[in-house]
Amino acid sequence: MVNIFSCKDDIECAVYIKRRLDQYMADGGEISSPKLVYDYLRILVHYIMAARPREEQNMDSLLKLLGASFKEKGYRTPFWLIIREAATLYPRDAVYYMAKSIENEFTNDDLEEIFAFMEYELMRQPDREQMEEELGHLAVCRIRYQKSRASNIRMQREPEVLKNKTDLPFMEECRKFLSEYTPRRLKAYLDRFVIGQDETKEVLSTAVYNHFLRITNPEANLIKTNVLMVGPSGCGKTEMIRRLSELLPIPVVITDFSGIVATPWKGRNKEESLLNLYIKSGKDIDLTECGIVFCDEFDKIIPAKLYSRGGDINNELQGQLLGMFEGTDIDVPLQDKQNGQEVLMMNTKNILFICAGAFEGLEKIVKKDYVKMGIGFGSEMMREDAFELTGEKLKTEHLMEYGMKPELAGRLSTVTVLKKLDREAMKRVLVEPEDSILSRYEREFMIEDHVELHFTEDALEVIIDKVNEMNIGARGLNAVVHEILLEALFEVPSMPEVREVLITGAAARREEKPTYL
Predict the structure, then answer these.
(1) CA 290 to CA 244: how far, in whole Å?
(2) Per the domain annotation, does 158 fall within a domain?
(3) Does 391 lie in the same domain as 508?
(4) Is 146 left (phi over 0), alpha (psi -120 to 50) or beta?
(5) Quick one: 195 and 295 in the same domain?
(6) What's the confidence (pLDDT) of residue 91?
(7) How much is the average pLDDT of 68-85?
(8) pLDDT, position 289
(9) Domain boundary at 146, 178, 208, which?
(10) Phi, psi of 345 (to 5 degrees)
């Protein structure tokens, strides 16, 4: 390997590595899995030459990466993590793709054999001073990363646990769920809590149903359908997921992606959502790997070209998400870095990802195409003032123009658009759903003080006016109603003679006190 970095291309590197390994074994060197070691060295050298700057394409970098392959507790950038992240940035790279198939086969014993091979190679160095320097560097890497190898960086499951997941206890609950719920019944459940948004409720219900089909029938190799929900704040996206999480027999977590960054030590990272899923499952790794992750505020990681100044600051993060969404092994940190970080390897193949965001400006991109299509035809639906964004109109190329990487858009195979709540819909949200905002306050007054709470029609109109001024959709309902009821919530517990509280329009506008009857 002394002259490996003088090779002109990947093919020449592969030939050189094979020749040197053959010579090593011919000279009595022991390698128990020659092909595995050959594939590993190809990946290692390919990464340095394809993904690292020219000044790092040297023997020092090779030895550091070789040492980083030891699975040591506390070492934060193991070689395989680096390779997996490189693979998400270069998804069509055949050498990186090969890494996925050999990672779980590779052991520290294989690595010991490679260190012996590297020592053999460095002994061929004609410059004795350089040879001694590089042999010393090899020894340092070997000792530094090998010293804690007994405490594996990954919490690998015992072989007996790696049985058919369909035999696990929670799978019986999943099969029972499938026997009770169809997509239509799931939508009917959501209808109890969310007003309108029928298209999105149908999409979510179908995606969740198919997810259960997929995890209970692994032999069928069904396609995973990750979902993208596009809609303004307060239109029901999070509420749908929250209600589903109360019904489903698998863990569902909601993670705010607005602060997620590509570089873990500079802020929150994508593995946070997987850690939350692991905790929600009671630290049951098998259950975790069948869960659902809701990525809220997902648009915040997309560098919207319409508003950015040309910076593509989250391109790397989008690349990292490709493998996670499609299905790969992810190293999830379990402990605080200051205390020695323990890492759990989690496979995301059977985790359903549902992403949601407002995607401000996306409608303009889609509208531009549809207005052009309507020119000269007199079509009412193509007129700019008649345009309405729907899931059918939103195409992958529109997401790409917005700033999403093509590969990432392809991983979100189902797209649905939620409508902004108009005045009538907002009023329905206030009073109609099971467990609506008003019904919650009505229960609070009845349970605490046996008092009935009533709102006049005028009061409801005032509430809607105030919420619309906030411009955050139904999310503002609770804050507005609570503000209106503050005085009554304070006074009624001290008024045992009161049996009814009436909120009029004037009381809702804070022009007069609530009526106590």
Answers:
(1) 15
(2) no
(3) no
(4) alpha
(5) yes
(6) 65
(7) 59
(8) 92
(9) 146
(10) -85, 125
The HSE-up count of residue 513 (CA atoms within 13 Å, CB side) is 9
* Cβ 277 vs Cβ 293: under 8 Å: yes
Locate the DSSP E strands across 404-483.
414-417, 452-455
CATH code of residue 475: 1.10.8.60
pLDDT at 97 > cutoff 80: no
Could you read off the pLDDT of 195-234 as tens digits, one per residue?
Answer: 888 889 999 999 999 999 999 888 877 888 899 999 888 8
Are the beta carbons of 69 and 41 closer than 8 angstroms? no
Instruction: Write out the two tokens for 75.
Output: 């070492």
**Does the predicted TM-score (pTM) go above 0.70?**
no
In a domain, 74, yes or no: yes
Kindly indicate the confidence band of residue 185, based on its pLDDT and cuts at 50, 70 and 90.
Answer: very high
User: Of 397, 417, 437, which marks where a domain is finished?
Assistant: 417
Q: Is 454 helix (H, G, I), strand (E, B) or coil?
A: strand
Domain that holds residue 480: 423-516
The DSSP code for 265 is G
> Token pair for residue 54?
């020219």
pLDDT of residue 378: 44
In a shared domain, residues 433 and 395: no
* Structure-token pair, residue 515: 């009526």
**In a shared domain, residues 124 and 184:** no
Provide the mean pLDDT of the chain: 80
CA dihedral (261, 265, 271, 277) in degrees, to 10, reads: -110
Residues 120 and 222 in one domain: no
The Cα 86–Cα 69 span in angstroms is: 15
- For tokens 């863990």, what's the residue? 251
